[in-house]
Design brief:
- The protein has 106 residues and is an all-alpha fold.
- 77% of the residues lie in helices and 0% in strands.
- The chain is built from four helices and no strands.
- The termini are close together.
Amino acid sequence: MLSTDQWATIRGLVDWLDQNNGRSDHELAMRTLKVTEEAGEVAAAYIGVHGQNPRKGRSHGWVDVQEELCDVIVTAAVALASISAEPQGVLDAKLTKIAARSAVAR
């Protein structure tokens, strides 16, 4: 779960995007689609860790995968905060549901 300070940073990123890109339906869609782009970068880094692209070989390390996963988390949080007045509550409620489904105590 993101901390209060992390959510403040996310809100700052949302404000920065709003100032630079506006807040149209198209812009909100782009913020949502950006999550998919970032997830693709995770996949590319993972492929690079294992050298699955013969042309590139082992082009990435586990730190690259970690950084790309963080990009997915931040990008998803920005998208969520762009469409929800209470993104922290939405995420917390979702984690509670997932924890209950998986028998993980919260």
